[in-house]
Design a protein that fits this description.
InterPro entries: DUF2252. By secondary structure, the protein is α+β, with helices and mostly antiparallel strands. The protein has one domain. It is built from 20 helices and 12 strands. About 45% of the residues are buried.
Length: about 475
Amino acid sequence: MEKDRHEIETFKIDQMFIGDSQEELIKQGEGRRKEHPIAAISTFNPVKRDVFQLIKLTEEKMIPELLGMRHKRMMQNPFSYFRATAGIMEKDLRQFPDGQSHIPVIICGDSHLTNFGFFASPERQLLFGLNDFDEARIGNWEFDLKRLLTSVVLTGRINGYPKEQLDGILAESVHSYRRGIKYANSLPLLERFNLSYSVDDLLGQMTDNEQMKRVLLKVADRAPKNNSDAVVKKFTEKTEDGRLRFKENPPRARRVSQNVYAELMAGLEDYQKSVTDDIRVLLINYEVTDIIRYSVGVGSWGTRCYLALLTGKDGSHLVLQIKEALPLRYNLSALTVEESQAQGKGEGKRIIIAQRVLQTYHDPFLGAMEAGGRSFYVRQFRDMKDSIDPLNLDQESFSAYCNMCAFILAIAHYQSPTAPMIYGYVHKQKELDMGLAHWAVKYADQMEADYACFAKYLQGEEDEE
């Protein structure tokens, strides 16, 4: 089959440089709603595409050894499949220009329920927000919201929530997004820029659900224990000469060749140029003592991902994650392996810029590098990072969590200078709540059908073997 060709999406932050006032942008947003009404962006259009081919084209750029396990992880349930196919949803949404608001902001690109989580502030407070930016780009705000809502449907169905109650949760989530937009619009620029939500804020302002409060308190107790010391204890062993090295656990954790090790070491020197001066000075106190390939996630499983063990002059340790920064999944399915590698240069920078914008406080070790002709981004591994599993929540706490995520998504979107246009589009537009709720239900039906087809396809491959 001939590969689907399309214009390659690029991330140019200067698209956000505009001179219009907030009031003018709000009026432009109102104008966009007239040109592209809520009824249009809420209309589900059935899509025709070859999901097998699209997945295959994406996986051509991944590590062959890991694809079997990748398929097992993504086929656990329809939501796992959904997590692994962000590019397919992006392609589906782009097919219908009339169903888009055409209001560009910096978006997460993969804002499903499990891509929100907890992380540490510089003061070691536990904050909540978006925590995955591999698909971040400049795009329509509703693409993020639709992805969040579809994840609500898929997880809610797995949890067995009745349709009527799930429809209500969806509508409440859209309302919560609109409420977040209204709140962000009311704030002065610096106050909005510095806005963040700690666990205490969530307990006091974002939810009155007692079960959700218990979940948050449990996370607050657990997350600080997720640190480099815990990683070293679990992931490493001592060699005969007394040095620490990562344990192998194939295929998830494998030692790398001398050539790859050398490329990554050279890349880490490049990485130090991308961090702030204070972190660069701190890193002088460490030396890299081991590197291992270590696979993570569902959508990222199969990409080149590594852990680097850094040992300090005082004998303490720091563990960094070096994660491959592929082109956007939407682009990836249209690129050859060679084109993907060439296009990938600079993708790490795209991801860290988006994270710095969408997360008010970000990991101070966040940076980018190139190694072996590929782009990577670097961050601390499991430093107070934690999450809530929506599949382990009762219905009331699930509803509270969905509302929380939608509100936080709105706050993140409002860091873009063009965001007042969203306010102009959604303010007092109650019909958007049920409109997008109905859209998400129908798109979730599409995802479940895709999941069943792909499961049948994989079963056929196994039978042939």
